[in-house]
Amino acid sequence: MDYISRELERKFLKMNKVFKVVLVTGARQVGKSTMLKHLARNTGRTFVTMDNMRNRDLAHHDPELFFHTFKPPLLIDEVQKAPELFEYIKQICDNTEETGLFWLTGSESRKLLKNAGDSLAGRVCVMKLYSLSLKEKSGITSIPDIKYTYEDLTQRESLLPKYDINQIYEHIWKGGMPALSGFDAEQMNSYYSSYIETYLMRDAVDDNGISDTEAFRRVLTACAAFIGNLVNYSDIAAAGGVSVPTAKNWIRILQTMGIVFLLDTYSSNELKRLVKTPKLYFCDTGLAAYLSRWTSKDVLMNGAASGHYFENYVIGELLRNNAYGETMVNMTYFRDTNQKEIDVIIEENGVLHPIEIKKASNPERKTVKTFDVLKASGNEIGKGLVICMTDSTFPIDENNYMIPASIL
After folding, report:
1. CA 159, CA 144: separation in Å to the nearest integer?
2. In this structure, are residues 81 and 53 in contact, taking their beta carbons and an 8 Å threshold?
3. Distances in Å between the alpha carbon of 250 and those of 24, 83, 243, 381?
4. Is residue 3 part of a domain?
5. pLDDT one-digit tens code per residue, 306-328
6. Residue 331, SS3 per DSSP
7. Which of 128, 161, 195 is a domain's end point?
């Protein structure tokens, strides 16, 4: 299979120039090792994987000899399996001013982030890779960050293909796992079944100490049923046959594993009666579609959860833009006890950009009226967006625009 370039490459190479260690985390099978092995080609960097039992045993029992055997610059794959290496990596880094010594990959876990943070503070840059975006599938990896002026939005639109509703739902249904390229429905089902058994359940046991994998699987499936909704821990616990505290803990573990994403609520001292419950999304919609038994793109697109999956798609593209872009922003959503809701609020440099997500091609203009609730927040309110299936960017009024989902 041909290599698919990733948006994160730009940022990774830039951080490699100033950090001694760069760690790429992410869910299993999203392409971390593939990306770094591609970038390491013809550079003289040695590749060592901790999936190899001999390498792992050497790292466990004699980490000093490990680094006599494998000298920097190194690419160490699945480093979470050899936590003994972190202290020695720190010592090597402290004895030189050279940057880019170590490239590390690791499947996300609390242990990995704690070990890296404790041992390599100030020496490591941690970045996250998600499964393929629709842009990456189209071979597009060098698009500037989203800006909120009409000129910038229309310029961005001119740089990207116009995806129709069928293309977007094909991506939503299939998901972005690189291995799925060219798979049909039967092959996809086998892939996701194996993915859950081989990776998720094993990591649940090995990394997180979960013994009841059947209950954990039921909680995972219940999460897929709540995609795009406020997290209802009681219902998810009931579906899993576990206690509410256990369900909460397992959802946190799924978030740490890079499987689900919880979008927190916007908070402000100036605004009262705000709902505090986060909303639940999957980092890869294909896995959620498999768990919920959506058997085809058309069934999903025309089904009862169609709008929730479209919302998850938009949230996922925004997450990727934030992880790979130059400017870090804060993403939340707004909901109050009067049922007023704003799907996403992007906070950048103290300015709030409210966003509504609609599957329709021509949603009602009054949708943006809800944005007015933010005027009492004490923050500056920037341009607002309605992300939908419109053909092109156009202004709703002087402060808000409709934009096609394609330009994410």
Report:
1. 10
2. no
3. 23, 23, 11, 36
4. no
5. 999 999 999 999 999 999 999 98
6. strand
7. 128
Number of separate domains in the chain: 2
Query: What contacts 359, CB < 8 A, 6 or more positions away?
Result: 165, 306, 307, 310, 388, 389
Separation of alpha carbons 256 and 208, rounded Å: 10
Distances 285 to 105, 134, 237 between C-alpha atoms, Å: 23, 12, 22
Q: Is residue 363 part of a domain?
A: yes
Cβ neighbours of residue 66 under 8 Å, at least 6 residues apart?
55, 58, 59, 85, 88
Q: Is residue 2 part of a domain?
A: no
In this structure, the answer to whether residues 140 and 72 fall within a common structural domain is no
pTM of full prediction above 0.90: yes
One domain for residues 121 and 164: no
Token pair 């009226």: residue: 369
Selection from 295, 214, 338 nearest residue 222 by Cα? 214
Kindly report the length of the chain: 408
Q: Give the model's pLDDT for residue 270.
A: 75
